[in-house]
Amino acid sequence: MALDLSMPVLVVDDYKTMIRIIRNLLKQLGFSDIDEASDGTEAFGKMQERKYGLVISDWNMEPMTGYELLKKVRAENSISKTPFIMVTAESKTENVIAAKKAGVNNYIVKPFNAQTLKGKIDAVFASE
Question: I want to staple 39 with a disulfide (CB 3.0 to 4.6 A). Which of 15, 53, 61, 98 is the partner?
Fold first, then answer.
């Protein structure tokens, strides 16, 4: 599937500052339809109401983590194919492996810049 810059993107993070950073990076890359959620529960609710072309989610959040959100999304037929990029401050190998097993499309370790984000997004859409 080709990368469509007009597709809706959902950014999930419990830190407003991180959402703002990712939103700005996405805008730099040409995305215009960017939605946000402050945790996995809110994100899952939004995903039930709207079809997103990409989800970029933080790992560490309360009450539902990005990892739990990923597993829930992959288990839900109507949204299970949604491209999902996990963002985390930890580059623990076991986390990367767990996320891969749960069906994550890509993984970004903070801090990152627009070029890194673009590379990860391009890789997700090149592999579809």
Answer: 61
Taking the domains of the chain in order of start, what are their residue ranges? 9-116
Q: If 0-12 CB within 10 Å is exposed, 13-18 middle and 19+ buried, where does residue 18 land?
A: middle
pTM: 0.95
Could you tell me which of 47, 64, 41 has the C-alpha nearest to residue 10?
47
User: Which two three-digit tokens encode residue 34?
Assistant: 């960017």
Phi and psi at residue 78, to the nearest 5°: -65, -25
Q: What digits encode the pLDDT tens for the residues 102-115? A: 999 999 999 999 99
- What superfamily in CATH does domain 9-116 come from? Response regulator (3.40.50.2300)
> To the nearest whole percent, how much of the chain has pLDDT over 90?
88
